[in-house]
Amino acid sequence: MIIGITGTNGAGKGTVVDYLVQKKHFAHYSVREFLLEEIRRRKIPENRDSLREVANDLRKAHGPAYVIQALYEEASKQEAGTIIESVRTIGEAQFLKSVGAVLLSVDADRKIRYERIVQRAQVTDGVSFEEFCIQEDREMASTEIWDMNVLGVMQMCEFKILNDSTLEELHAQIDALPL
Q1: Nearest-5° Cα angle at 62, 4 to 142
Q2: 104: number of CA atoms within 13 Å, CB side?
Q3: Which of 7, 55, 87, 165 has a Cα-to-Cα distance from 63 of 20 to 30 A?
């Protein structure tokens, strides 16, 4: 089984991935890591704007599902279940569905999500709440098949998790999914 995971920034996608990797022995493929490798190769700043810029450059040059397709090529070699994190465009979601993957979204209240990104302190998360909101709004919807449309992808998901509560509640929601 291949799961494409999507969701809003700071919603808990990584926490869901960690749980599935540890509890159900899924393999994990990360769009963020794929893009960070390219960002480092290009020697540009490691931030959220660079992630978006590089992803869009690659999708424009190679097709709207390029990044996910590259990860899928590796993921399809696994015998175990596989998670591809994080699906951000309609083109990526359509590709995954075309190869039989299921889509899972994770969301949470915006203020809670901002508090989480401040706590995790990744290099791409060092922004004010106002900048966080601007970045998120820019990523939520686009009419371009290669550009970020997180809201559109979330609407395509077979499974949805709302992660506004405790870690135990999140784990219970994951366990309730037919994965």
Answers
A1: 60
A2: 26
A3: 7
Q: Note the residue count of the chain.
A: 179
The two most distant CA atoms of the chain are separated, in Å, by 43
Does the predicted TM-score (pTM) go above 0.85? yes
Q: What is the 3-state secondary structure (H, E, C) of the chain?
A: CEEEEEECCCCCHHHHHHHHHHHHCCEEEEHHHHHHHHHHHHCCCCCHHHHHHHHHHHHHHHCCCHHHHHHHHHHCCCCCCEEEECCCCHHHHHHHHHCCCEEEEEECCHHHHHHHHHHHCCHHHCCCHHHHHHHHHHHHCCCCCCCCCHHHHHHCCCEEEECCCCHHHHHHHHHHCCC
Task: Tell me the pLDDT of the chain (179 aa) as tens digits.
Answer: 999 999 999 999 999 999 999 999 999 999 999 999 999 999 999 988 899 899 999 999 999 999 999 999 999 888 889 999 999 999 999 999 999 999 999 999 999 999 998 888 776 667 889 998 998 898 898 888 888 899 999 999 999 999 999 999 999 999 999 98
153 within 8 A of 8, measured Cβ to Cβ: no
- Decide yes or no: CATH 3.30.365.10 for domain 2-169: no
